[in-house]
Design goal:
The complex is a heterodimer.
Chain A: H1 2-16, E1 20-28, H2 33-47, E2 51-59, H3 60-72, E3 79-83, H4 87-92, H5 105-109, H6 113-116, E4 120-121, E5 124-125, E6 128-134, E7 136-140, H7 141-146, H8 156-169, E8 173-175, H9 184-194, H10 211-225, H11 238-246, E9 250-255, H12 258-266, E10 272-275, E11 285-294, H13 301-311, H14 314-324, H15 331-335, H16 337-341, H17 343-350, E12 355-357, H18 364-379, H19 385-401
Parallel strand pairs in A: 1-2, 1-3, 8-9, 11-12
Antiparallel strand pairs in A: 3-11, 4-5, 6-11, 7-9, 7-10
Helix pairs in contact in A: 9-10, 18-19
Chain B: H1 2-38, E1 39-41, E2 47-50, H2 54-61, H3 65-95, H4 101-113, H5 116-126, H6 133-140, H7 154-183, H8 186-194, H9 199-227, H10 231-237, H11 248-258, H12 262-293
Antiparallel strand pairs in B: 1-2
Helix pairs in contact in B: 1-12, 2-12, 3-7, 3-9, 4-7, 5-10, 7-9, 7-10, 9-12, 11-12
Classes of the chains: A alpha/beta, B mainly alpha.
């Protein structure tokens, strides 16, 4: 009898002391990402000795495939960072755990609303924004001076004029136009939105063949035709444009806040400025968030939530946001003097109210691909804008209707 | 009587385990592909409902399929023909003894040692519109006045991709031909020379026919490898702009991993497999007939 009691006691004690194990998949933003999350995990494990956290860092371009393979193999992680554009697919397959039950109002109130919204589908919050950026207009002040331009262009027509002057007075290129690779469509959305158009109309149809959209595409086409952009835009991805700008051979381009960090590290002597995107009908810029989500297949949801709550404390968010060159998603971090008083980051933070996001629909990759193809035909002068965009809109509507 | 029959079975029994393993390793993926192509599959590889041949008809109706197929045939034909035409003279030269032949052979073999993706990345930099080595060289030689953005359109990027493909296929083909040339016994040449044959006739009537089996081997292996060759086109243009440099394998990649259409992608895989099988069988039949005539 005594022996039985001892065995039972040991069993119960063993179970109680049993560790919950969490698998957290982290996307690699830079060399700082891994160490940062390891530190968070170490601190968390010190505060919660009964929970073990394993961090796995995966490069971005492998992340989706890695998650797909894990899910297909029944080994989905408990928590993962994902591109918000993938969220719709995960939710459709029932893989994302809604977090509303876990979140207190106080927790929720910490977030800048604009960044929380993209993770809310069907009224349920399926993830938390872990990184956010909005795009800004970068211009080379030295080239502007050499071309006799005093102020960054406010409207697209002024941009055209500035590009023309840069091409005439210097041997640099005017406006960097991304015509190839990932997010070539996004580069056009900057024009589409500021011209007054929308990617999807209110009734869920494609808006890329609206009169504003055609006007925006025509504007880009003319910039290329008149030699105001770098030659052969379809061969240029975002990295290629950034290289040109770093080398001081590009007058203007649009990209994200990480570029400030790149320029500080690789071209510290470049005299550049940051401004709002050019304007025609309304101010706009592209906002992008990355979401951290909990998998519905997780067997340690309470522990996973505790980890998320821990990782979202302002001190950790500040360190991550500053280190990776992103924008703050918590109000407390945004108010921190570093961001509020940083001359260039402050300008970018001011663009937040006009941030627009890519629509969260399943099959977004396919829709983006169709748009890119239409735009490339326009840039290569192989199809007139109205025809290319009409055909693309038709294909997209068929996909949306499915 | 029974012992006798068992004796005849033994070779097969001994082969059976490795055969089974090979069939499983090769056959299971094909079986899985067939299953996926007959069902609707979601992004995460999970099979949904059975749809029969609908994926096949979807693929055949896809406006991007036929151009990709055509381009793949151009790509394969261009590279294989170019490779063979260039490799033969190179192999002939390397077969003759001369000072530095060892170094020459090593240099010819070097591209094979570099991974295809690395070669493609180096070429991508060389072809860059602004900092590219190719533009710099051509401008120094006075052949062009302004830099050309090679990778901006299909008209310039596709031929260059084929050229790179030829360059990386030459080492292997030269090796095959060198092997073939060294297998030709020297006595045949001596005998022919005694009969008064020289130069071109020697080549046409002795060397070429004896090289035929190696020629066939080089062609069929190159066709199979080039048809499925992914890194060069992907690194240079990702099949763009506007899918104008897409070959079947890059289009397959986009279908599977960008759009998540694993069912259509599986179907495309099977179609590519069938095409290659047909080409191989056709080629084998043609060359077999040729050999029996000889």
């Amino acid at each position: 009898m005594k022996r039985l009691l001892v065995v039972l006691f040991l069993l119960v004690w063993g179970l109680a002391a049993a560790q919950t194990s969490l698998r957290v998949v982290i996307a690699e933003y830079s060399g700082l990402t891994g160490p940062f999350f390891q530190d968070v995990a170490a601190d968390f494990q010190r505060a919660h000795p009964d929970i073990e956290v394993r961090i796995e860092v995966v490069p971005w371009d492998l992340l989706f495939m890695r998650l797909t393979t894990d899910i297909a193999g029944g080994r989905a992680p408990d928590i993962s960072i994902i591109g918000t554009r993938w969220l719709a697919e995960f939710v459709a397959e029932g893989l994302a755990e809604p977090l509303d039950a876990f979140m207190t109002d106080a927790f929720r109130g910490q977030f800048i609303e604009a960044f929380l919204t993209p993770s809310i589908l069907d009224g349920k919050t399926y993830g938390l924004p872990v990184a956010a950026s909005v795009r800004a207009f970068y211009y080379n002040k030295d080239l502007f001076e050499a071309a006799g331009i005093t102020e960054p262009p406010v409207s697209w027509d002024e941009l055209r004029e500035a590009a023309r002057r840069i091409v005439e007075e210097t041997d640099a290129f005017g406006f960097g136009l991304q015509g190839g690779e990932i997010e070539a469509d996004v580069y056009w959305y900057y024009a589409l939105w500021t011209f007054g158009g929308d990617i999807l109309t209110d009734d869920g149809q494609s808006g890329i063949n609206s009169p504003e959209a055609v006007a925006a595409a025509e504007f880009y086409r003319q910039l290329i035709r008149d030699g105001l952009t770098q030659p052969g835009p379809t061969a240029y991805g975002r990295e290629d444009l950034q290289e040109l700008f770093k080398a001081g051979r590009l007058g203007m381009m649009i990209t994200g806040p990480w570029f400030i960090g790149h320029l500080a590290a690789e071209a510290p002597d470049l005299n550049y400025g940051v401004a709002a995107l050019p304007f025609k009908e309304r101010p706009a810029t592209m906002g992008v968030t990355d979401t951290i989500m909990m998998f519905s297949t997780s067997r340690a949801k309470e522990a996973a939530w505790q980890f998320l709550e821990f990782a979202f404390q302002p001190e950790y968010r500040f360190r991550f946001t500053q280190g990776e060159g992103m924008l703050p998603v918590l109000k407390a971090v945004a108010e921190d003097l570093y961001f509020a008083e940083h001359p260039r980051l402050g300008t970018i933070v001011d663009l937040l109210p006009h941030a627009r996001f890519a629509p969260i629909v399943p099959e977004w990759e396919r829709i983006a691909d169709i748009t890119v193809r239409a735009l490339q035909l326009v840039y290569l002068e192989q199809a007139p804008p109205e025809q290319a965009l009409n055909e693309a809109a038709e294909q997209i509507n068929r996909i949306l209707g499915r | 009587m029974r012992l006798f029959k068992l004796n005849r079975l033994i070779p097969y029994l001994l082969l059976a385990p490795s055969l089974a393993l090979t069939l499983f390793a090769l056959g299971y993926p094909v079986y899985d592909l067939v299953r996926m192509s007959l069902h609707e599959v979601n992004r995460f590889g999970m099979l949904q409902q059975f749809v029969g041949l609908q994926n096949f008809s979807d693929l055949l109706r896809d406006p991007l399929f036929a151009p990709s197929l055509y381009r793949t045939l151009v790509w394969t034909f261009g590279i294989v023909v170019g490779t063979v035409l260039l490799s033969l003279p190179v192999a002939l030269i390397l077969n003759e003894p001369f000072i530095g032949r060892g170094i020459a052979r090593t240099i010819i073999l070097l591209p094979w040692a570099v991974s295809l993706a690395m070669t493609a990345i180096v070429w991508r930099w060389a072809l860059s519109g602004q900092h590219g080595l190719l533009n710099a060289t051509l401008m120094d030689l006075g052949l062009i006045n302004a830099p050309i953005v090679w990778l901006a359109t299909a008209q310039t990027s596709f031929p260059i991709a084929i050229g790179i493909g030829i360059l990386v296929s030459i080492p292997f083909t030269v090796t095959v031909f060198l092997g073939g040339l060294s297998s030709v016994p020297g006595e045949i040449y001596d005998a022919a020379r005694v009969d008064g044959a020289t130069g071109l006739p020697l080549f046409r009537y002795i060397t070429l026919p004896l090289l035929k089996p190696f020629f066939n081997l080089a062609v069929i292996l190159n066709v199979i490898y080039v048809f499925n060759s992914f890194p060069i086109i992907w690194v240079l243009t990702e099949g763009g702009p506007a899918n104008t440099t897409d070959i079947l394998v890059t289009y397959l990649y986009k279908l599977a991993f960008r759009f998540g259409d694993l069912d259509v992608a599986a179907t495309l895989s099977l179609i590519m497999f069938a095409i290659l099988l047909a080409i191989s069988v056709l080629f084998a039949l043609l060359t077999r007939r040729g050999e029996s005539r000889a």
